[in-house]
Here is the input.
Amino acid sequence: MIYVIGTLAGVGIGLFVLSYFMNDRMKELENQVEQINMTMMQSNYQLKKKMKVLEEELLAEDLTQEIMKQSPRKVEPPQSRQSLPLIDTVLSMYQKGYKTHYIAKQTNLSEHDIHSMIQQQKSGGVQT
Here is the structure.
């Protein structure tokens, strides 16, 4: 009887020690799931970035088409429409990071006028 208990105790201790050296399948599965999750998050982020770029391009194309459809009487020389507050508004919006097509839409100016104002500011200031 003592031999049986001793043998069972020895086998139990041997298996207990052996369990520390064996690979844990659940741990491997958790690592794989975590890796897949990270890959999916990266893919999702990249897709969102691409969608944002595409939306901006489509918006720019729509605004360009609207500008092309405008009647000739709306396209006046910039000097007749510009005033100092309008120039300040355009420059402050540009410095805040707004896109030129958005500034053009908000101020009812053409995108070319916006680019001209920004270039004048960069090259030494706007002359009044």
Remarks:
- The radius of gyration is 34 Å.
